[in-house]
Each structure stands twice: as C-alpha cells, then as structure tokens.
Design goal:
This protein is α+β, with helices and mostly antiparallel strands. It has 4 helices and 2 strands, in the order αββααα.
C-alpha cells in the first residue's frame, strides 16, 4: 500500500464509518501507512457514510479538496 501512495504522489482521503459492520473501523489505521494519507472516522455511520450522512461526507470531501486545490485548478476551465 505504501509504495502505491508514493508512486502516485496524489493526496488520499479515506472516509471510514466508525460503526461499519462489514469492516472493523480499526482497519482504517492500515491506510495511515500510505504517505500523505488522511484518514477520517465518521462517527454514527456504517459501511456507506455517503448514504447514511451525505452532508457530513460531502463536508469532509469538500474540505479535503479545498485543502489540496493546486495551481492547476485555478487555471483550469
């Protein structure tokens, strides 16, 4: 996992439902081995945070995208 993150050189956001019954929320820590990865546990959500709490999921995505908005985004369009 770590080599892929270094090779791609792209920011990574991992959103994980804290109440996920399919995957243990503790497994989200595995993503921390990817250089530059941001891992967020969303309390009160399960396996599908985008369906269970779309507003909070969108807020996390937008904040991450804004924080990683590079010069290309300013000139694109």
């Amino acid at each position: 996992m770590g080599r892929r993150g270094q090779y791609l050189g792209k920011p990574l956001l991992v959103l994980f439902g804290q109440d996920d019954r399919r995957w243990r929320s503790s497994s989200a820590a595995d993503y921390r081995t990817v250089p530059g990865a941001t891992v967020e546990l969303l309390p009160g959500t399960g396996h599908s945070p985008m369906l269970e709490d779309p507003a909070r999921t969108a807020a996390s995505l937008l904040a991450f995208a804004s924080a990683h908005d590079g010069p290309q985004a300013a000139t694109a369009g």
